[in-house]
Design brief:
alpha+beta; eight-stranded antiparallel beta sheet; five-stranded antiparallel beta sheet; 14 helices; about 25% helix
Length: about 725
Amino acid sequence: MPALNARIDDQLASGRRSLRTLPTTSLLGPTGARLWADYLDPKPGFSGAIDFIHKLNIPLLFTVESDQGTVFEPCKLNWHPSYLAFEYESASLSLREHKFVTWNDCSVAVQTWENRGPDAIVIRLKTDPRILQNKDQGSLSGVYSADRYSFAIRTVLKLSDNRLHEGLELAPGQQVRLVIAAAMGIEEQDDAAALERRAAAFLEQPAEDILPANQAEYQSWFDQAPQFTCDEPLITKTWHYRWFLMRHNLADPRVGQLQYPLFYEGRSHKMSKTPFAPHGWEFSKLIPLTAPMHLLEARWYPDRSYGDGIWKNMMASQDDDGLYRCLLVNETLHSYANFMGWGAYQYYLIHRDKEMARQLLPSLKRQIDGESRLMGNAEDRLIIEYKHNRTGKEYQPSYWYFNDFPKNCKDPELVTPLKRVDRSIYHYLNCIGVMNLCLALDDPEAERFGEQAEQIKSDVLSGMWDEESQFFYDLHYKDNRKAYVKNIVGFYPYWAGMTDQRHKNGLDYLFDERYFGTRNPFPSVAKDCPVFSAEGGWQGHFFKGRNGCVWNGPTWPYTNSVILDALAEESKRREHVYDKEFGHAFREYSMLHYAQRDLDKPYLVEHYDSMTGEPISDDVDYNHSYYIDLVIRHIAGLNVQEDGIVLDPVHVGLTYFELNNVNINNDAIRVTYNKSASQAGTMEQGYRLYVNNELVLHSEHLQMMKYTFPRSSTKE
């Protein structure tokens, strides 16, 4: 049985990880609160596309060049979550380097150079004068004004050997070990002396201790996270990778409009690569669409600053109409559909913090009321989407159903606003979440939001459900005609738990090869759609490029997480009828996390060809879905309710598993399952729940059981 607290570097170590579209580059795992590398060039130091808070494309922080040449290829690269190992050898030169970024925004390189040739070699530091302009007593420093984002970056660089400035000569056979550290901060917040001390700290310790110390610090974040292991390496490893995704995409800008920690969707290279002048769309900002998904995952991490940061930033993004908007440090962008009200309630169930709920509840009410006013209509409670990209599923074909799927889908005159299934389900879940928060706080508006939820449910079931085809469809925004396109969002009512026996056959479309049962499930629209395209594009035209976001057939981890959640809940409600299908689809979802389905190559991207499984985006280590929450609630079966814990697992064929280090309102929770006494070492047989190391539930088999909290479990 693998150790629960196995080191993340050992779990996920890989060889060279590069962008598919830029194979000469390499990826870097560790990220700082503000500093990270989109990619690095095959050179010593930090050369490539380097970013600070948002996309900047800084081409160079520092490198070391040799008079033997500036090309260090072929080279060997070994990727680890906490550092990158770089090796280069030629007849005359050997270079070994470990490099990483620290949480306090230092880029550090520990290098060993050896002259293996017959002649002297000179190596020399190279920097970018736009970043580092001043030299003072061996330090380099500078200030760069990122005008696009209205902040200035102060950088201080320190060297263990100042001869690198003018040129360090290596005699034949000579070896030298170098430490280079560059600390970066905000000019108004971090003075040069503070940054110099931060960088100098790496020069004050033995060079051989620097990497182990960094690994230990990086690992300490993962040691606090819940631990899960089972008899299937695929699920265990993906659990570790998903926690890496959370840490990799964690940011804490503390400037401008982003004053609190948050998780990015990704650290994407989609923008242009022009040095210091990126343009286009980026994911390194607050995006309301996925913030609730991040909240579902972050609620299981014991440090609440991350989960609290999500909702605090969301509140800061809210406009006068009550809509949550995308947020950069100095700019507010458009809104997105989201289920923040529901996510906030799920977060509350874990931490039971009434003060948090009191702060957030007025904002959540404003969102519901604002969307009802701006996107509602007079005849029902369904939500109209006027802009097809605002639910995060742009170019879903139902918007063009009433114009017979025109060739030119970009013509705004040919797009029909719709009463959307996903938007209406989010609205319903938000009402349910707010209702429950109101009940927890004795807020008299609980009844208002509960009644609204019931009305939305009634309208979805009566208006969007088609009895003949057994599916939920989007509706024309004026006359309620159904857009007979089987979008992936047609399964969202099952996710919301609003379906009944009448709708029991609808989920069967997921497994039918004529519809959603593709080789790489689940496509964003069924195969019977006239403009279905497994690889994206629109009728053969890739108007957004080969990697563009077009929701007419590719598979997206984003909706896979929602559909798997729906499938698991529906299976539990119906005597585990879909457990086998859930197990298969969950493993397929897990396989998306690895390039070429190779567990030695963790590489989750935004979307995939639904027939071949080919990654058709290059937004690596993308955090646009949820997985940890699915493992906890459906694989381990740990579900938290107002009055207690319900163990209710989906039976996926595991012979043992252990979930540990979970904290629910300061209670230590552990769940174990061991099918046979001969399995999993010393783990006791059966299905067990421990609270503060006390066994409170036990069964010989996986089954539903409930533990009722013995006292009030809510913080005042």
